[in-house]
Amino acid sequence: MRRVLALAACASATVYFEETFDSGIGERWQTSEWKDPMGAWVWTSGEWYTNEAKAKGMQASEDMRFHAISAKLDAPASTVDKELVVQFTVKHEKKDYAFCGGGYIKLLPGEVDPKAFGGDTPYAIMFGPDLCGYDISRIHVIFENKGENLLKSDEIKLDYSDKDEFTHLYTLHLKPDGSYEVFFDQKSKASGKLEDDWAFPSKEIKDPAISKPSDWVDTKRIPDPAAVKPEGYDDIPAEIPDPEAEQPEDWDAEEDGEWEPPMIDNPDYKGEWKAPMIDNPDYKGEWVHPMIPNADYAPDTYAKYPDLTTLGFELWTVNAGSIFDNILVTDDKAYADKMAADTWAIIKEGEKEAKDAWKKANKDDDDDDDADVDDDEEEEEEEELKDEL
């Protein structure tokens, strides 16, 4: 499904790209030949679902393979003086406690060769989940800036309950004022200013022409130079014979030697003498590096891309089975919410029951007991990993 101007839901929305895979992957999608061999993409609803037609998407179908595929936007998108909303769903159908795989989308500028599209192809935005077991579970948001790909300073963590095999919705909302918000299943996971949360050039920098003076004193307390160790202090031993010890009655001096009481810690021993600490009269406080305006500070340019032409998925999949669907690039968050209601909200209902029913229907009678044991063991391992985290 594609529309350049979407009038039905939101009259003012510009839709640069929309894909629900209603009738197949289609010619707009072109697979890459970046590696040999490449993993195959297939059109499927997966093994279990509640609404087969709505659940149909584009699946990375092979284990231990690079999967790369891209499509041209219906019209070039821009983040200059315009909002940008990137949204899609992912269903990691084969996910278990050992699952490892990415699920992120890339938006690329300019001319892109779809056959060569791969890990070395420059991109402007990368967004989506990165999952591996239960210790790596986050939402990536990466922006290109002057040839460097900037990761978010603080990771957007996914909760334990979010790391399952069901269909989830990911939404990135960029605004012209330099703010952003990331949603997971329409719940806000992170928001703020781009300049605060990525390593874009900051407003001020430390003055490179100034260094801390060599005579700067930042030691707050010092040993009292006037203190003198008390006379006889070093004569106090660390251990002394136990004054309460008594020689055993059966002690034989001729056979056992002269009896000596065992040693105990000396209660009067004070350890190595140290001068008491006092405030340093020369203390000047913590030195603060003077700041100056940063000549590279240009917040109006951060994540501002005038010519986004292509989107694609470029992934290394340890585990096959990830289904991508309901892909949207627009300038209207309300339109994205409407699309989510018409797609993801319908798909996600009853998925657990559908999965349980599929598993039950696909178990061989002879293997039921073994399968139940395997499920129990898997659940125990997942709980152990959860407890460790």
From TrEMBL:
User: Its GO CC terms?
Assistant: endoplasmic reticulum lumen; endoplasmic reticulum membrane
**Protein's name according to its UniProt entry:** Calreticulin
What the record says about family reads:
Belongs to the calreticulin family.
Indicate where this protein is primarily found.
endoplasmic reticulum
Keywords in UniProt for this one? Calcium, Chaperone, Disulfide bond, Endoplasmic reticulum, Lectin, Metal-binding, Repeat, Signal, Zinc
Q: Which organism is it from?
A: Chrysophaeum taylorii
Q: Tell me which residues bind an alpha-D-glucoside.
A: Y104, K106, Y123, D130, E314
S-S pairs:
C100-C132
Biased composition range(s): Basic and acidic residues = 210-223, 353-363
Q: Which Gene3D superfamilies match?
A: 2.60.120.200, Calreticulin/calnexin, P domain
Domain of life assignment: Eukaryota
